[in-house]
Specification:
Strand content: 25-35%
Shape: rod-shaped
Structural class: alpha+beta
Number of domains: 2
Distance between the termini: 95 Å
CATH class of the largest domain: Alpha Beta
CATH superfamily of the largest domain: Band 7 domain
CATH architecture of the largest domain: 2-Layer Sandwich
CATH topology of the largest domain: Tetrahydropterin Synthase, Chain A
Helix content: 25-40%
Number of strands: 12
Length: 205
């Protein structure tokens, strides 16, 4: 009788252990299957590093394949600010010019942005490359008198970039930003003639 009782107690403990282990596995599986999204968020799902489906933007609870699929959260409405250090470029007639850009942006195409941010170690480096290339392309093809003008206002005389130069740089950079999933909200461009040739002024437009 004592031997049977011993085996019965061990069997009961084994059953309890199995049930507890099964319960833990179920809880972990369920937790890994569910994710939630706030109103200001959007989600990219990947499996083995590959994007699965479209971006998920509806707030609330959502399901995914447990353990195999990974959730990546992105902001949906947040506006970011970015500005460059002064980019040094030279006009067609050899006059130096410093260009500074201030960009307000948000994530416009989440999948494109996710792919870009995964490929680029730093999104700021991508921005700087895009703007430096555009500024160089525009300025190097024109003479200095085609790039800036002397303007008179309540502060006196100062040098500023011409509107068409600002527009050209914007027209070159905007498609490249959108191709990377970035939606430009506002782009300000400032120009500074070479050393001792003028002060930094905000370009119109």
């Amino acid at each position: 009788m004592e031997t049977r009782t011993f085996y019965s107690k061990n069997s009961f403990k084994a059953i309890i252990f199995i049930l507890l282990a099964f319960g833990v596995i179920c809880l972990v599986t369920i937790k890994s299957s569910i994710y939630s999204i706030r109103r200001d968020q959007q989600v990219i799902i990947t499996q083995n590093g590959i994007i699965v489906g479209d971006a998920v933007t509806d707030p609330g609870l959502h399901f995914k394949i447990p353990f195999f699929q990974k959730v990546h959260y992105l902001d949906q409405h947040l506006i970011y600010d970015w500005n460059t250090d002064q980019i040094q470029v030279t006009s067609l007639d050899g006059i130096s010019l410093s260009v500074e850009l201030n960009l307000s942006w948000k994530i416009g195409a989440p999948i494109k942005y996710f792919q870009t941010s995964e490929a680029e170690s730093n999104i700021s480096i991508l921005f700087e490359t895009i703007f430096a290339s555009a500024a160089e392309s525009v300025v190097s093809s024109k003479k200095a008198n085609e790039i800036w003008v002397i303007d008179n206002d309540i502060h006196g005389k100062h040098t500023k970039l011409k509107n068409d130069i600002v527009d050209e740089i914007k027209n070159l950079t905007t498609p490249l930003l959108k191709k990377s999933g970035v939606e430009p909200i506002n782009l300000e461009i400032k120009g500074k003639p070479g050393k001792n040739q003028g002060d930094v002024v905000k370009a119109p437009g």
